[in-house]
Amino acid sequence: MSAAARPALALAAPGAELREDLAACAALARAHYENFAIGSLLLPRRLRLPLAAIYAVVRIADDLADEGAGGSEAAAAIDAWERDLERAVAGEPVGHFALRACAAVIREHALPLEAFRALFRAFRRDTTQSRYRSYEELLGYCRDSADPVGRLVLGLFGVRDARLFAASDAICSGLQLVNHWQDVAADARRGRLYLPLEDLSRFGVAPEAVLEGRDGAALRALLGFETARARELLERGGDLVAETHGRLRLEVALFRRGGLAACDALERAGYAVLAGPPHLGAADRARVLFRGLLDFATGARRGALAPRVAA
After folding, report:
1. How far apart are CA 286 and CA 69, in angstroms?
2. What CATH class does 141-298 carry?
3. pTM of the model
4. Which CATH class is domain 7-128?
């Protein structure tokens, strides 16, 4: 099935309460996430409020993970939020505007509840886990914390192709990983370490050194290795650009190029991230736009997907 085979619908003539709920979700999104307005402008107008409803439900769950006296209290709050979302999707009355709006979006666009369950699992995991033994374990976290976001966006466009989901997962996991490598210092200040313990051992880096902010050649070599892994995922996701069209292709192309530019910035900085993440300048942003538009115009294929059979 092609990406354009099932066009997404707008919310059909929403009533006054739903209009108010959607507007409240949009206000929450704009207040919490400075890039939301930029990202949503890449979407067709009919999908901006549905995206805001999804964002609001996920944002609130993420905030719940950071609140409370301990991990069990935060996890219980996320459990209750998840149950309320499922009740709302089933048509039961719920009190929160974000739940009501998101439930309407889920029903209209036939979005999978499992994507939300996966995100909530990741938030619960954040309340109890601050280390990852292996790269595979970290990728498992990305499958819950990042990949569902891409699948939900594809769902808004009516995409149901498992091949495209695989390419989307590669981009989302790649973006998640490069964000982790940019934010090593900030995560360390919170006692959190996403660099896999087996890789720290392989490169001769003590976890305590990272947590205490001690830089060194071994740590930079490790970050170069991990950044190459993120780049490989982002490159593999180029097939999603080739297989999509219109606004969706543009959004995918620009976000993917933004991730690759972040990898480039880490490399230029020599992977010295303990002083803070490297920033993209105006020239970097211009290159992201130019290369993203070029990918949009020509497609960007890496070969992760099976070739199409000619009709």
Report:
1. 44
2. mainly alpha
3. 0.87
4. mainly alpha
